[in-house]
Amino acid sequence: MKKSPASIERCKTVSTIQKILGGKWKLEIIYYIAFEDIHRFGALRRQIGEITESGLTKQLRELEADGFLSRHDYKEVPPRVEYNLTDLGKSFLPVFEHMKQWGEENL
To answer: Cα separation of 63 and 49, whole Å?
Structure first.
């Protein structure tokens, strides 16, 4: 059975989404920023617990580069940096809610 051009394009879209959000901690980071009102690097690290500082930095930078997060550096001593969802990140929240609901019902 030959795939139609539309089905090939859908696969590319899903693949791209998986690449953007497929990091080990990315969904958890988005969850804490969106639903637990945790925006600072140190608080995210403490909440996740198992993540290394370099791992969190990498995941946050990737989410920022992909347009899901914005980063605000307050240029203070000691350093204070906060992360917030961008409009793109906020637009993902209904999808996140459906995933969460599905998980609660089926897992």
So the answer is: 19
Tens digits of per-residue pLDDT, 7-42?
666 678 888 888 888 989 999 999 999 999 999 999
DSSP assignments along 51-105, one per residue:
S-HHHHHHHHHHHHHTTSEEEEE---SS--EEEEE-HHHHHTHHHHHHHHHHHHH
- Whole-model pTM: value is 0.84
The residue type of 26 is K
Q: Distance (Å, rounded) from C-alpha 29 to C-alpha 16?
A: 19
Could you give the angle at the alpha carbon of 78 between the alpha carbons of 73 and 84, nearest 5°? 30
Give the per-residue pLDDT at 1.
58
Q: What is the length of the chain?
A: 107
CA atoms within 13 A on the CB side of 91: 5
- Pull the structure tokens for residue 26: 């990315």
Do residues 92 and 68 touch, judged by C-beta distance below 8 A? yes
